[in-house]
Amino acid sequence: MRHWAIAHAVDDFYQGLVPASIPFFVLERHYSYTAASGLALAATLGCSLPQPLFGVLADRRSLPWLAPLGLTVAGVGAGMAGLAPVYPLVWVLLLVSGLGVAAFHPAAGRAARQAAGDSASSMSLFATGGSVGFFLAPVLATPALVALGVGATALFLPPAVLTGYVLWRHQLRTGGRTGSRATGSGRDRWAPFALLTGVEVVRSVVYFGMNTFVALFWIQHFGASRGLGGTALGVFLTGGVAGTLAGGRLADRIGATRTVRLGAAAAVPALLLVRLAPGPTTGLLLVLSAGVAINIPFAVLVKLGQDYLPTRPGTAAGVTLGLAVSIGGLFVPALGLLADHHGTPAAMAVLCVIAAVATALAWFLPEPDTTA
């Protein structure tokens, strides 16, 4: 599991590198906001739509090279984008990077489930790797981009190549065993899986919404500095890492569906308290709690999806780790339009309502079938 958690961190670092680098394309290349949004869309399209297809492929064939290759391609695409001289080439490279991410997640999620067995705690380690990678991207990349310009994205090429090679060697040593032991023999339950996908989409709207607007809320609503706004975002992401780990351990004790319901329900008052926070400093503790609550269900949803589709763990991982999460991110521009007209407090208030929708949907999730 250690190999897969580290690989997940490296892979999702490149997902985080894209939004971290986009402001520098605007500043240095003078791209419009529309063009900048197009770069984010390229990465999202490459990452989201193909993931279920890669999941089906990973379930049908033993492809030990798929995850290492996907990770390497993700890093090469994002790393080379800063060196590309023209916008169309930047767009294509970010699309290719997204395709690499799409290839990695289903194969890695399937292999991680094999390594984890029935342990939600172990699966939470794998999911936490992705959260850590996404968190580290702006922390590590921003100073380099400030000092050296957008071409500094190329500095982050070596981790992708090195990690891809190490993961490939690991696959060779273990025989790439993502076959029958990673696939259960139970009955696939598509209706509960569709409901779970809906829960994940709604949860990801809340997550991406907070990721986008929490710093702006601190700056515009509280009048805080940019530094303190960035701190609020960092605290939220830190809470997300803690919540992902806590969710796995909780699921091993009280069950997956109860954990998803608990996390979804806890997110509603946590977000409401952030919206009503009396000040920017006091609000940091509240935004930490919101980060924990929102992410408690994350790894558990991945495992529960594989429980609902025991014969298709790669497909389940492709949807829960990729498609559903990315679709949630596509709703954020609508929140931005709301914030443009009514301010960030309105966007934060709507996030509270959206979190309540996730809670309602989670209530109807059935228990996984353990009799097969």
Automatic annotation (TrEMBL):
<feature type="transmembrane region" description="Helical">
    <location>
        <begin position="120"/>
        <end position="140"/>
    </location>
</feature>
<feature type="transmembrane region" description="Helical">
    <location>
        <begin position="316"/>
        <end position="339"/>
    </location>
</feature>
<protein>
    <submittedName>
        <fullName>MFS transporter</fullName>
    </submittedName>
</protein>
<dbReference type="InterPro" id="IPR020846">
    <property type="entry name" value="MFS_dom"/>
</dbReference>
<dbReference type="GO" id="GO:0022857">
    <property type="term" value="F:transmembrane transporter activity"/>
</dbReference>
<dbReference type="InterPro" id="IPR011701">
    <property type="entry name" value="MFS"/>
</dbReference>
<keyword id="KW-1133">Transmembrane helix</keyword>
<feature type="domain" description="Major facilitator superfamily (MFS) profile">
    <location>
        <begin position="144"/>
        <end position="372"/>
    </location>
</feature>
<feature type="transmembrane region" description="Helical">
    <location>
        <begin position="31"/>
        <end position="50"/>
    </location>
</feature>
<feature type="transmembrane region" description="Helical">
    <location>
        <begin position="146"/>
        <end position="168"/>
    </location>
</feature>
<dbReference type="Pfam" id="PF07690">
    <property type="entry name" value="MFS_1"/>
</dbReference>
<feature type="transmembrane region" description="Helical">
    <location>
        <begin position="345"/>
        <end position="365"/>
    </location>
</feature>
<feature type="transmembrane region" description="Helical">
    <location>
        <begin position="259"/>
        <end position="277"/>
    </location>
</feature>
<feature type="transmembrane region" description="Helical">
    <location>
        <begin position="89"/>
        <end position="108"/>
    </location>
</feature>
<keyword id="KW-0812">Transmembrane</keyword>
<keyword id="KW-0472">Membrane</keyword>
<feature type="transmembrane region" description="Helical">
    <location>
        <begin position="283"/>
        <end position="304"/>
    </location>
</feature>
<feature type="transmembrane region" description="Helical">
    <location>
        <begin position="228"/>
        <end position="247"/>
    </location>
</feature>
<dbReference type="GO" id="GO:0005886">
    <property type="term" value="C:plasma membrane"/>
</dbReference>
<feature type="transmembrane region" description="Helical">
    <location>
        <begin position="62"/>
        <end position="83"/>
    </location>
</feature>
<dbReference type="InterPro" id="IPR036259">
    <property type="entry name" value="MFS_trans_sf"/>
</dbReference>
